[in-house]
Amino acid sequence: MRRFFRHPVRLVPLGFLAAIGLGTVLLMLPAATSAHRGTPFVTALFTATSAVSVTGMSVVDTPGYWSAFGLVLITVFTQVGGLGILTGATLVIMVVARQLGLRNRLLVQAETAEFGIGDVRRLLLGIAATAGVCEVAMTAVLAGRFWLGYDYPPGRALWYGLFHAVQGFNNGGFALFPDSLVGFARDPWICLPLAFGTIVGGLGFPALFEATRQWRRPGHWAIATQLTVWGSAALLVVGFAGLLAAEWSDPRTIGGYDVAGKVLAVFTQNAVVRTGGFATLDMAGVDEESIPLLIALMFIGGGSASTAGGIKVSTFFLLGFTIWAELRGEPDVTVGHRRVATASQRQALTVALLSVALVVGGTVVLLLLTEGLPYHRALLEVTSAFSTTGLSTGVASAVADPGQLLLTLLMYVGRVGPLTLGSAIALNTRRRLYRYPEEHPIVG
Q1: Contact in structure between 233 and 247 (CB atoms under 8 Å)
Q2: Separation CA 22–CA 85 (nearest Å)
Q3: Model pLDDT for residues 2-22, shown as the tens digit of each residue
Q4: Rounded distance, CA 203 to CA 206, Å?
Q5: Cα 62 from Cα 58, distance rounded (Å)
Q6: Contact indicator for 204, 306 with CB cutoff of 8 Å
Q7: How far apart are CA 171 and CA 388, in angstroms?
Q8: Is residue 274 left, alpha or beta, with left meaning phi > 0 and alpha meaning psi from -120 to 50?
Q9: How far apart are CA 40 and CA 16, in angstroms?
């Protein structure tokens, strides 16, 4: 048992389990609900997991079901989950770097330049300061808009601004409105701060710190930063164009909006779809052509060491570069005039294939548990849970307890699984003193 806890990496999933357990117990208290009744165990567990894993998926009407105390709990656990993910991922990277030996440690530090400099305290303070500044700025803008634009009393406006700012930056997705942000889809003072916070929180601090520190020399960025920043920008453009084209004339979503309203609603939805969880489009009414695009964007997710979920942008685009190099018959995979280590290629492939297996397997099980559920809706719900996005077409609240427990498990695995898996792979890397004879089996 002592050997199991030797690596701090293994404490990360246990820490999330402890937070989920505490959140479940507190949310089951009568004081946590507006009706002052005890919450059923599955509902409390689902909500606590959703908050700690910064998913934002809900099986009840968040503003109507939970009391002020319950909403404060959700806010606190979302903040704890978000900062826990950031600091946990950061510390894991540092631990892994120190466990790999001098040669591999230098390689890791080259790919995560910010983590190779300074002490843990300075690094964690930088993370906390960045999160604090972003959330304070978002709170100020949102609270001002709720107060001056919608005549909310100052105290209520401040609470609404703070709640949604925390959810936005941490990519949580809980909202204090039954329709999420659909009612504010054409309000730039509400949508743009949340879209900005979600993008920043979803980039990841390795990429964010290096990109801001060397913004004049993007060619000198590490491969991980280049893949994350340019890949995220490409996904924003492609997702926006595809979603706008699919929903342009849909009367159930943006068909009745003017051009500016359509652009704002789709831009915001596209900005948060990869893990933010807010909805400016009615998810139950989106066109079936949009669902594959939404599923793909959710599955990819955001940046490494961020509040975002999914297989990560760098993983997705690294696989793309690997395929491109193979199609061209090149011996090495290169990104920005740098050669990608073979181990990194194998790790990306492992994470992607295991994630595909979990999503497909989860979808099959959910279909077996829920009679009459359309497969594309089941796939969207499972992908949303696994990628910790939180978008829902209403399936989560409609399925029975076994289905909700399945989604709960997927949220937890999707949150800590890739981090734990990647760390385990890195820590288990070893050099053999011999190699077997090489053979080229037929592929395809």
Answers
A1: no
A2: 17
A3: 554 555 556 667 778 888 999
A4: 8
A5: 7
A6: yes
A7: 9
A8: alpha
A9: 21
The Cα–Cα gap between 237 and 3 comes to: 47
185-199 residue pLDDT tens: 999 999 999 999 999
N- to C-terminal Cα separation, the chain = 45
Question: 336 in helix, strand or coil?
Answer: coil
Residue 19 CB partners (closer than 8 Å, separation 6+): 48, 52, 77, 80, 81, 84
Q: Is the pTM of this model over 0.85?
A: yes
- 176: amino acid identity, one letter: L
Q: Is 347 helix (H, G, I), strand (E, B) or coil?
A: helix
CA-to-CA dists, residue 138 to 112, 158, 394, angstroms: 28, 11, 28
Residue 197 DSSP code: H
Q: Are 81 and 131 in contact (CB under 8 A)?
A: no
| Structure token digits, residue 429 | 């890397």
- What phi and psi values does residue 152 have, to the nearest 5 degrees? -75, 145
Amino acid at 294: L
Q: Are 76 and 54 in contact (CB under 8 A)?
A: no
Strands 334-335 and 338-339: antiparallel
Cα–Cα distances (Å) from 90 to 111, 120, 172, 213, in that order, read: 13, 9, 19, 18
